[in-house]
Amino acid sequence: MGILPMMLSLLVLGALGKLVALASGVVTSQQITKGDWAQPSRAGFTLDGCPTSCGSVNFSYPFGIGSRCSQGPDFNLTCDHTTHPPRLFLRDGVIEVFEFGGSLPFGLKIWTSFSHIIPLKPGVSVYNLSFKPPGRSFHLYPFVLNITSCDLEVYSVEENTTRSICATVCPDPEITQVDMHNCDGFGCCRVDVNSYADTYHFKFVRDQNTKYTRAHSNQTSQLWDEISITSTGGLIFSWDIGDEPTACVACVSEHAECLGYNYNTLGMISRNGYNYNCVCNDGYTGNPYIPHGCSSNDKGYNPIPSRADCIRWCGNISVQFPFGFEEGCFATEEFRLNCTNMTPSDAMVMLEEKKVINMNVEEATFDVTIPDQQRWDPVSPPNGLLSANGLFLSVKWVAAHLSCAEAQQNRSGYACVSANSKCVEVSSERIYAGYRCKCSDGFRGNPYIQSGCRDINECLQPNSCKGICHNTKGSFSCTECPLKTEYDPIKMQCTKIKQQPLLLGIIIGMSCGSMILLLSFSIVFLTRRWKINVQKQLRKNYFRKNQGLLLETLIPSDETANENTKIFSLEELEKATNNFDPTRIVGCGGHGMVYKGILSDQRVVAIKKSKVIEECEISQFINEVAVLSQINHRNIVKLFGCCLETEVPLLVYDYVSSGSLSEVLHADSSDGFSLSWSDYLRIALETAGALSYLHSSAAISIFHRDVKSSNILLDVNYTAKVSDFGTSRLVPIDQTHIVTNVQGTFGYLDPEYFHTGQLNEKSDVYSFGVVLVELLLRMKPVFTSESGMVKSLSNYFIQEFKDGRITSIVNSQVLEEATDEEVNSVACLAEACLRLYGEERPTMKQVETELQTLRTKRVKSCQADPRNEERMLPESLPQRGVIAARQSLTTELDERDNLQSRDSRQCYSLECEFMASASLPR
After folding, report:
1. Selected catalytic residue, list 282, 706, 724, 750
2. Start and end of every Protein kinase domain (predicted)?
3. Percent of the chain at pLDDT above 70?
4. Residue 95 has pLDDT above 50, yes or no
5. Which of 443, 497, 532, 822 is most buried (CB neighbours < 10 A)?
6. Are the C-beta atoms of residues 237 and 133 closer than 8 Å to each other?
């Protein structure tokens, strides 16, 4: 295996596969029948005599031709030798394979094409086509089909829904061919399929009433006789292995590892459930699906070339050791290059059929061109040490996949042989790659050959010294110019100072000094005036650019907005924040910085300085300010106004002093501060009420799009305040959803919105469900389990909920303070909010009603027992007072309350039944 695929497999596939394995969560496997297909784990397994190529396409196990050479039916290939060159097909004999290789977010990649002909029959107007991957191990990515025929309507059939997707017309009865490149409806139309499905169904309807038919044409044409379906740009399949009795049994090599995927948990269609691929461990390459298939990459490095007459030039490219063309001229087989047999002016350096256009041995990099741009997948750019740059790849390489300490233990195979070289360890994105060699500071050259690092004469570099330069080995030193000499930067040496009469020199010096002083004062004065004028003009320009005139007309048009909203000047906000002093920063997130400020009327405010936004979004921003300024809800942070005199508008909000719900939930327990379950239930109710108001009670529906515990602020009385509308979107009255770029916070993001890009009110419901789980479990939305795996809190909760283990994972403080009915009700409500499909989730109004019912029951139960009056009083006080009040309760009352709590936990949860019925589709 060459160095380029070696680095691809090590850094791209390895890194990406591990990330997918962590994100996939808990998976299950399914049983399939093996039959008589080749299994490496069986005794006597061998691939001797099995073909490994068909035409120009190479392949390896688990793919093969015939049952003895392939891992299963899905991987059985067919080679058509009747064509020249031979053509390779998948198991169905229809989908042609062009290339194996590359990685996708879920599985490895195959480049294919598809072509199908449907003959037209007299009197038949409707034709059907079903298209699906040729096996359970394949997954089809978005693709494009060209439909060629005359007077045809093409429909997509999805369950019970049929929709038209394209149509063709042939106005000329003599037409015989069409322009396949445009495919704009004249004899040809294009179908873009961007969804993930198990099977794609298409229906073709031929217009029988058209006045042009083949009978009217003077010649026979395929456009009138058939329907041609061809793929455009190729079909991309990912493949993996699934349905194993035991996970990862196909990874039989000693140094192989398993990378698992769970498509269903990620919103994609999967017929299996558990899917995986095998890869060789870091530092190994080969085939992980066969015994002894993964071998070390670090064998046989020879730091000394065995030949002295090696060719080191090919065309205009210098090829230095450890690379070479001939035996004995390169360090390992992976560093072997090929020089084409063309004339010297046209000679090319080739690395595995890729042209090398530049090499830098000291920096361990080279650039190669991509011969076929259509084979390069722009969706999955190279990762790790490979980076795309225009029409070529910039590749960083290592001498071996060893650390410097490991490499130096074997001096006979140590690559850094130059006397003035050093070892440098190379890694990318937390993935260790190996080591390379570099010349020491003050030296330059090739560190991979003896005496390759040569001293740099720093004295030849311009202005390295402001005096006399003395070059030393690996460094240099400087001394001052002798007396009555000065350094000349043009000549780069010390020259004599020209003598001038003393008096003349004094006069000239004083005159020049006075002129310079006067000129400096004038320049400073004029510059300051000019800057002030420029600043004023710039602020005016920003004000006009940011649609300030439009906002001024919107604000007076509504009396309520005019009373509460103000357009602040930049001077006011600079004074309020002490010129945006960094010590005034109270928050820094993905949408900008938040400063604490004090206005002239002594109001304490939070001033949000957002990141740069597009000019086309300014009008939408102004509209959002005008609408948000009219929101008057006690549980939503109040917008006081904005400033439009900066490049990016500034927003001025009411300052909320007690931090966020996330800080209280996940605070260190050692500080002794915590809110009660009743407080958390009240905060959840207030947050649900605020979101319900935004969805249905505001003048225009507003989708928050970033609901999370860190955006739920708490005031001095620990009342919830929903904040951060930086990603919120306004929705017209006649729309139920909008299509936007996907934004949000990982762990809270609605999976349906993530995959469809369609934002609706149920996206906020999903995020609020994660907040409810946080309140129950007191765990972060993304956490590391005891086994070291990174897990999603929502997936973990849903699995435990389905298994009936809610009580075992709920926080101990919640179990102590809440009744079983309250725990089960909140858990049921969270599960309903976290359902995969938005139509099955409740609305925020239903969520608010359910929480209100729970809180009313809790308040009534406390009021019914006079002993609980002391517990209810701190609800209206700061919560630290609440804690002190609770600590004063006697042990006897606590024991009796616990007995009543255990009795009440046996009650049937009507809330679960309510939420189950509310989520049914209507």
Report:
1. 706
2. 580-854
3. 75
4. yes
5. 822
6. yes
Q: What's the DSSP call for residue 641?
A: E
Q: Are 471 and 459 in contact (CB under 8 A)?
A: yes
34 is in an annotated binding site: no
pLDDT band at 502 (very low <50, low <70, confident <90, very high): low
Beta strands in 638-778 (DSSP E): 639-643, 650-654, 701-703, 712-714, 720-722, 729-731, 737-739, 758-760
Q: Cα dist. 392→233, 371, 383, 418, 797 in Å?
A: 21, 9, 15, 31, 46
Beta strands 126-131 and 200-206 are antiparallel
Q: What is the pTM of this model?
A: 0.41
Higher confidence at residue 139 or residue 671? 139
* pLDDT at position 407 over 50: yes
SS3 627: helix
Looking at the predicted structure, is the pLDDT value of residue 887 above 50? Answer: no
280 and 9 in contact (C-beta within 8 Å)?
Answer: yes
Torsion of CA 519, 525, 530, 532, to 10 degrees: 160
- Terminal-to-terminal C-alpha distance of the chain: 59
- Calpha distance 287→256 (Å, rounded): 9
Domains delineated in the chain: 3-110+239-296 (no CATH), 120-133+143-230 (no CATH), 313-455 (no CATH), 546-655 (3.30.200.20), 661-918 (1.10.510.10)
CA 717 – CA 635 distance, rounded (Å): 12
pLDDT, tens only, 629-651: 777 889 998 888 888 888 888 88
- Structure-token match 């359902």, residue found: 835
Q: Confidence class of residue 458 from pLDDT cuts 50, 70 and 90?
A: confident
Pick the residue with more confidence: 743 or 330? 330
**Residue 706 annotated in active site:** yes
CA 313, CA 344: separation in Å to the nearest integer?
10
